[in-house]
Design goal:
Elements: H1 6-16, H2 26-36, E1 43-47, H3 53-60, E2 64-69, H4 72-80, E3 90-93, E4 109-115, H5 124-134, E5 135-146, H6 164-171, E6 176-182, E7 185-191
Parallel strand pairs: 1-2, 1-4, 2-3, 4-5
Antiparallel strand pairs: 5-7, 6-7
Length: 192
């Protein structure tokens, strides 16, 4: 039996107790489609897939999607969703920050997504190094994250999100950086 990672120890009780997170809406779906383009049966990896909605969106765009999450309950929820027309994503329970990347079904991905996860990554430079290792030449790293201070100052979650310094770590070293604002969120399309 594998010992759970710190991330799994934190997230598993939340998913297993029924906690749900911001759903993917049409606006966000459109932004992803604009920046990622058609899948043309290329592989995509959704890091921190949760209930699987983004991974399913990727299959609708024509990607061969794999969704990974460190929470077994999240993976079970993703796999149990009503299937959408067409191929289903592959589901894997693994922590991207510690897992053997060779255990993934593909050696490289045309698209790697990270929705509402980057903020929670402790060692951001190491995480980004792993993502770059997984990204195929010409691929896109799609990140959706909350930005600190975008909520009203009276909101208890006002400081939730990434700071300017964390955003600079995220965007450093990419040849192309495109951003789009989505209320309290910012979407990043990053290319090597």
């Amino acid at each position: 039996m594998t010992t759970p990672t710190a991330a799994a120890t934190y997230w598993e009780p939340l998913w297993s107790q029924g906690r749900r997170y911001r759903q993917l809406d049409d606006t966000e779906h459109g932004l992803l489609e604009d920046h990622a383009g058609p899948g043309r049966d290329r592989p995509a990896l959704d890091i921190g897939c949760g209930d699987g909605s983004l991974a399913r969106c990727l299959t609708q765009l024509g990607y061969r999607a794999t969704g990974i999450d460190c929470s077994p309950s999240a993976i079970a929820l993703a796999a149990a969703q009503d299937p959408s027309p067409g191929p289903e994503p592959l589901w894997r329970c693994m922590d991207i920050t510690t897992a053997d990347l060779g255990a993934l079904p593909e050696p490289a991905y045309a698209l790697v997504t990270c929705r509402l996860v980057y903020r929670w990554i402790d060692n951001k430079p190491a995480f980004l190094s792993r993502v770059r290792h997984l990204l195929a030449p010409g691929g896109t790293f799609w990140v959706v994250t909350e930005i600190t201070g975008r909520r009203a100052t009276t909101d208890p979650l006002h400081n939730l999100g990434i700071t300017r310094a964390q955003a600079e770590i995220l965007t450093a070293g990419w040849s192309t950086v495109h951003t789009a604002n989505l209320d309290v969120l910012r979407c990043y399309a990053l290319r090597p």
